[in-house]
């Protein structure tokens, strides 16, 4: 095998160019070590499989963490602006305050 091919470097260009003026940053919240006794939010988008996926996620997590609680929030963010930018902003923010972690399910 040609060793030059193994050492090749390629420049990857984004089709979006430099349109995003907001610098990227990593996650700032610390990762949870254990979900026992925590309230987990299940954020579901409106696509067909999101609800069944969240049901399976809840069941599997409940098997591992029986004391965990779950709360669901159904959003329209797959079909429009983010929930935080809609008339549901206050409802969404209140839901977020009541959970320790969020798992988003997308039904694609």
Question: Brief description of this entry?
Answer:
This protein has 108 residues and is α/β, with parallel strands linked by helices. It has a domain at 43-88. It has 3 helices and 3 strands.
Describe the structure.
This protein has 108 residues and is α/β, with parallel strands linked by helices. The protein has a domain at 43-88. Helices cover 26% and strands 16% of the residues. The chain contains three helices and three strands. A three-stranded parallel beta sheet has the order 2-1-3, with helices on both faces. Helix 2 (50-64) links the parallel strand 1 (39-44) and strand 2 (69-74). It starts with a helix and ends with a strand. The model has no long low-confidence stretch (mean pLDDT 84).
Radius of gyration: 19 Å
For the terminal residues, how far apart are their CA atoms?
40 Å
Contiguous low-pLDDT stretches (5 residues minimum) are none
Oligomer: single chain
User: Helix share of residues?
Assistant: 25-40%
Strand order of the largest sheet: 2-1-3
* Percentage beta strand: 15-25%
Q: Roughly what is the average pLDDT, rounded to an integer?
A: 84
Main structural class: alpha/beta
Q: The biggest beta sheet, please?
A: 3 strands, parallel
Total beta strands: 3
Tell the overall outline.
extended
Number of helices: 3
Report the order of strands and helices: HEHEHE
């Amino acid at each position: 095998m040609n060793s030059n091919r193994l050492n090749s470097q390629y420049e990857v260009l984004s089709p979006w160019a430099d349109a995003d003026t907001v610098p990227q940053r990593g996650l700032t919240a610390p990762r949870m070590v254990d979900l026992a006794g925590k309230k987990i939010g299940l954020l579901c988008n409106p696509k067909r499989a999101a609800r069944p996926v969240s049901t399976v996620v809840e069941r599997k997590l409940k098997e591992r963490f029986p004391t965990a609680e779950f709360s669901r929030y159904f959003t329209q963010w797959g079909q429009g602006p983010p929930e935080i930018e809609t008339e549901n902003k206050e409802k969404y923010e209140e839901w977020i305050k009541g959970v320790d972690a969020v798992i988003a399910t997308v039904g694609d």
